[in-house]
Structure formats: structure tokens, C-alpha cells
Design goal:
Blueprint lengths: L2 H20 L7 E6 L8 E9 L12 E8 L11 E11 L1 H4 L4 H15 L4 E14 L9 E13 L4 H15 L20
Antiparallel strand pairs: 1-2, 2-3, 3-4, 4-6, 5-6
Length: 197
């Protein structure tokens, strides 16, 4: 195959993935927008950011916020197991009582798996971390009291199929972290929304 034919095939494959992502639908509570993709991670990349409303878009939501990055490399890097890799980030404040739960990390990871499964978004080679952050305000920040936050960073290799399913699963995960009731069957929920004072 000639180089030009290979380039055409590569562009078409990546374009089809982007088309499926851009056609994805999200819950009305989720504000999603395209952002510049990080450079030097892959020959082709596409990125989105999202906030769960009513937080103002353009700044971190007080409910949940996240980023989704689709990477493409036709050489199929061995750690990816294919030409595509998805990298996502999700962050949300929690009630302090939930933040100290020793099983929270496992539950948050299961939310991500459940969201992918509920959307039938096939994948392999998933990896990531779940971080719990506990904080206490002092001095001028003492009225903030105790706080808790969860951050999930994950990556996986989507199998052949609709890349839009993966971005919708990421959106579902953000809504679950924000404490919204599930909109897909099979997705369980642990109330994660920060309490109102």
C-alpha cells in the first residue's frame, strides 16, 4: 500500500471516530465542549471538557468536572493493543462522611466500569487511579470546615465500534459522581453530592 493510501485510511478511521463522538448525546445537566487536545501524546488527538450544571461552564463545576481525550496512532503502540486509546479525568466534591469510606476507591472504579458496560462500550487494557482528598480549612479558610474530593484518572483501549458510546459513558460517570440519579439501566449510584449548608 502506498504512503498516500495509508494516510487516507488513517484519516478516515480517525474522522469516523470523531464523527461518532460529535453525534453523541448527553444529559441536559452536562455542559460539554471541545478543547485543544494535548500535544505529543499521539499523532492524532481530540479532547472534550465537561461540567455538571448548574456550575458555570468555563470554570470547575461545584458538582463534577472532567476531561475526555481520544488518542490515535496507526502504528498501534503495544501498551494500547490497538490504534486508539482513551484517557479520562473526573473530579467531584463529596460529603466528608463519604470521603473517608475505605471502599470509596473501589466503588468509584466500579462506577466507571458500570457506565461503560451500560453503554455497551467494548474495551480492554483499562488502568487508572482513584484518589480521595480530605481537607480542613484554617485561618481565613476556617469557615470552609472539612471537605472531601474524589479524582478518577483512567485510560482504556476502545475496541472496534462506536467511539460515541465511550464518550457517553464518560458523561454518565460524571453525572453519577455529581449525585444525579442514573439514566441508564444497570448503573448503580452511591450519593456523592456535597451537602448544602
Amino acid at each position: 500500500m502506498s504512503t498516500s493510501a495509508q494516510d487516507s485510511t488513517t484519516q478516515t478511521e480517525f474522522d469516523l471516530a470523531l464523527e461518532s463522538i460529535r453525534k453523541a448525546s448527553f444529559r441536559s445537566e452536562l455542559a460539554v465542549s471541545e478543547i485543544p487536545a494535548p500535544a505529543n501524546l499521539a499523532p492524532e488527538a481530540f479532547a472534550l471538557t465537561a461540567d455538571v450544571k448548574p456550575g458555570g461552564h468555563g470554570s470547575d463545576s461545584e458538582f463534577a468536572t472532567g476531561r475526555f481525550i481520544l488518542l490515535y496512532d496507526r502504528t498501534e503502540p503495544e501498551p494500547w493493543g490497538g490504534p486508539f486509546r482513551i484517557v479520562c479525568y473526573a473530579q467531584a466534591p463529596l460529603e466528608t462522611e463519604i470521603g473517608v469510606d475505605p471502599f470509596l476507591a473501589e466503588v468509584a472504579w466500579s462506577w466507571m466500569v458500570d457506565a461503560l458496560d451500560a453503554r455497551q462500550a467494548a474495551y480492554n487494557l483499562a488502568s487508572g487511579t482513584v484518589t480521595r482528598i480530605l481537607s480542613t480549612g484554617f485561618g481565613a479558610l476556617s469557615d470552609q470546615g472539612d471537605g472531601s474530593q474524589l479524582e478518577l484518572r483512567a485510560s482504556w483501549s476502545p475496541l472496534l465500534g462506536d467511539a460515541g458510546l465511550h464518550v457517553q459513558a464518560w458523561g454518565d460517570l460524571l453525572c453519577m459522581l455529581a449525585g444525579l440519579p442514573p439514566s441508564s439501566e444497570g448503573v448503580s449510584l452511591l450519593a456523592a453530592r456535597r451537602s448544602r449548608s
